[in-house]
Amino acid sequence: MSLKKAAGQRRGEWIELMPGKLPVPENGGRYEAAMIWLQQELMAPPKLLKQLETEEGIKLAGDRLRLRLFPPRELSFAPVGKPPVILYEDDFCLVVHKPAGVKIHPDGESSEPTLANRVSAIYAERGEKVAPMHIHRLDEYTSGPVLYAKNAYAQLKLDAAMSRKEITRVYVALVEGIVSPKLTVIDEPIGRDRHHNQRRRVSPSGKRAITHVELLETMNQASLVRLTLETGRTHQIRVHLSFAGHPLVGDALYGGSTKLLPYQALHGESLTFSHPLTGERICVEDPWPEEWQGLRNSLHSQARLEE
Fold this sequence. Notes:
Layout: E1 9-11, E2 14-17, H1 30-40, H2 46-54, E3 58-61, E4 64-67, E5 86-89, E6 93-98, H3 115-126, E7 133-134, E8 144-149, H4 152-163, E9 168-176, E10 185-187, E11 190-193, E12 196-202, E13 210-219, E14 222-229, H5 236-243, E15 266-274, E16 281-285, H6 290-306
Antiparallel strand pairs: 1-2, 2-4, 3-4, 5-6, 6-8, 7-8, 9-14, 9-15, 10-13, 11-12, 13-14, 15-16
């Protein structure tokens, strides 16, 4: 999917922009005017503009402004495994579905293909010199959409948006117990668990963490909830729901039973972000995992048997 001509037209390694007639500063010329426009209107990262200037990656031709935003990049990870399902893609961004049980990138502990390997496989098959970098992470056994930047410009803009908490992530989870409709927000700090290297816990000395909760459905001793993160602490949803007395189904690390599922029932339902070039708000949805319907049917069946 290419950008609309009004926003910019890709021409090979370059993008061609049409900023229109620019006011020329007193102590400069058209080039200086273009640089001001790039910083103030396009909000291009200064670090990238400096690099483009050094590499002669900025060109003016009449009322056209060209930036070399798409230089060939070698793959950062070996292209191994089946390419993931693509939920959204254009010249700047890629969003793919991460299945449960797949790690984001290699960690030296497993030889199984990671999501990074599978994303590399997309571009190896196409023969494209693109090396996407992930903008956020998901736990190994959490499924859902993962956002990647396909070039340095997108990476700098999206990393900054992530740090400003401008990328919205919405999750759904099956949790143990009947969640009260009054439980709408969990605002508890999260820190490391001194007794367990992998685990986090609610701790007064931890970093502030806020999770918004919406009850969607109740079943036999279980609930389906929608969760929106205001912060992004490690294991935040799992820690907060366990602290509230409702560990995720299958989440043994935080007190959940594995009778129905051997890993946490947590799925990224949607991801919303501003496009790094156009500023357009893009919402990408990821359908619930197929096995969840079986889980819900099983829980509803148990409820009917007990009536």
